[in-house]
Amino acid sequence: MNQESVNLESEKITKTDITKSWIRWFAYSEVSNSYERLQALAFCGAMSGILEKLYKNKEDLAAALQRHLTMYNTQCNWGSVINGITIALEEKAAANDKEDDEEDGDEVNEEVITGIKTGLMGPVAGIGDTLDYGTLRPILMGIFIPFAMAGSAIAALLPLIIQTTFTAVMGYTLYHKGYSLGKKSIVDILQSGNIQQVITGAGVVGMFMMGALSASFVKLTTPLTITTSLKVMQVQALIDQIAPKLLPLVAVLGVYIYLVKVGPNYVKIVGFLILISLIGSAIGIF
Amino acid sequence: MIIEAALVGVLYYIATNRIWYGFSMLIRQPLSLAVFIGLIFGDIQTALITGATLQLMYLGAIAPGGNIPTDEALAACVAIPIAIQAHVGPEIAVAIAVPIGLLGVLLDELRRTLFTGLVHVADKRAEEADAKGIRRLAFLYPLLLVFPIRFIPAFLANYFGVDAVQAFMSTVPTWVLQGLGVAGNILPALGFALTMVIIGKRNFIPFFILGFFVVAYTGISIVGVAIFGFCMAAIYTHFQPNKQQREVS
């Protein structure tokens, strides 16, 4: 695709317009989430100011608004890059409309815009959820929970403050970056070694952290004793001789294996754990 | 009591109306809510301990495709006040929170079903090229519509719930309480295991074991763990051959 024509700087869309669109996206993104089309209304709402500037003709504006009301769902922070790209594409599409004699095949039209949006929203959501809620949030929580337990209200609020700030800076940057790089950006970001390294590194920290937190916070011991003719043996003491906290380790790995093998059935697992605990304490093994 | 219950209702509304991405994903966490609930009931200590314990269980609860597996905000808005007023331990509060969190999912389903109607109105506004109308449908109207859905359940649960729970607790046999206490101590395992699944790298399990036994044997602080973790990640990625970069160069 011809880059020069994609990045044709239309004077109509300014940096302020893009920032305004970003503010709307962050404010709206999940507010109107519905079963039928998920974030469609939020996406359309965030894009509406831009579209008003691009399409002065009422019919064109109506068509543009309608195409952004199709089903949309992504992770809204990292998904900001898609909004940025879409703005660049819409700008190009609006420019095409004016010189509709252009038939050289690189025309940005409705199919291209919708195709790129729907093509990107899935992978971006996967990356975003993993980094923001699979890694960053648990790590922040892991660091500050012990201080909160010790009674620090500031520590309890710090994950909120830090992640809100991080997300806003990240989203703002990606929104503008998506626009300036046009639709090439996401391919660059996905293919550059950096993001892969960040994901790998985040995975290492995340796993290490989960281990450390499991050892600190999952508690399981048994009061069982084995009575032989010679002496009474504490089962817990025997376990501790092998390695400390083996029962909590078994509990976490057991749940993990269940999740991997059977699937993430949250309700079932919670019910099962509570049931085991009740039975266990009733018959005296916990 | 009516004022406290109303304040919790408003807090639950703020925590779940989803204004401003990022903030909305963190304000709904029990740890964040605990501070405000503690202020409302004048017992920050108990609120923080209970909120932090709840948080451990909900650590890995993310919402793929927007479907929340459980409503940790409602769980916190009901269980933390109960922990404060009924003087039950955080483990019992966790056990109370679990079914409430699952009930909260119904509220979210109600909200998202209701908002399907908004999208159909938006279709009409789009035909008329009414961008302002679409913005109202995307922001103002859902915020107003969702208020009763969020406020009323949290208010009622707090207004009637604590006495009911207190009365109920006095009739429960001790082995049940003890069992719920055990469950409260095991349930964080779910949060950690879910997070491990989300990280999605099964060959990273040794890092999990390493982190586990570093703490189990030495008992170092979580900040110390973070330092080791970040250094290990830096070393690991440094020695990791990067396929894509190689192909490019």
As for the number of domains of chain A, it is 2
Number of helices of chain B: 13
Hey, which two chains have the biggest interface? Answer: A-B, 122 and 121 residues
**Unreliable segments of 5+ consecutive residues of chain A:** 1-10, 101-105
Structural class estimated from helices and strands of chain A: mainly alpha
Helix content percent band of chain B: over 70%
Gyration radius from CA atoms of chain B, angstroms: 22 Å
What's the end-to-end separation of chain B, in Å?
A: 68 Å
> Mind describing the biggest β-sheet of chain B?
none
Topology:
The complex is a heterodimer of chains A (286) and B (249).
Chain A: H1 3-6, H2 15-28, H3 40-54, H4 58-67, H5 80-98, H6 110-149, H7 153-181, H8 184-191, H9 193-217, E1 225-227, E2 232-234, H10 235-242, H11 246-262, H12 266-283
Antiparallel strand pairs in A: 1-2
Helix pairs in contact in A: 2-3, 2-7, 3-4, 3-5, 5-6, 5-7, 6-7, 6-9
Chain B: H1 2-16, H2 23-27, H3 30-41, H4 44-57, H5 72-86, H6 90-127, H7 131-138, H8 140-169, H9 174-186, H10 188-199, H11 205-218, H12 222-239, H13 243-248
What are its keywords?
A: 286 residues; mainly alpha; two-stranded antiparallel sheet; B: 249 residues; 13 helices
In short, what is this structure?
The complex is a heterodimer of chains A (286) and B (249). Chain A is mostly helical.
What would you say this structure looks like, in words?
The complex is a heterodimer of chains A (286) and B (249). Chain A is mostly helical and 286 residues long. Chain A has 2 domains: 148 residues, no CATH class; 63 residues, no CATH class. Chain A is built from 12 helices and 2 strands, in the order αααααααααββααα. In chain A, strands 1-2 form a two-stranded antiparallel ribbon. In chain A, strand 1 and strand 2 form a beta hairpin. In chain A, helix 3 packs parallel to helix 5 and helix 6 runs parallel beside helix 9. Chain B folds into 2 domains: 199 residues, no CATH class; 48 residues, no CATH class.
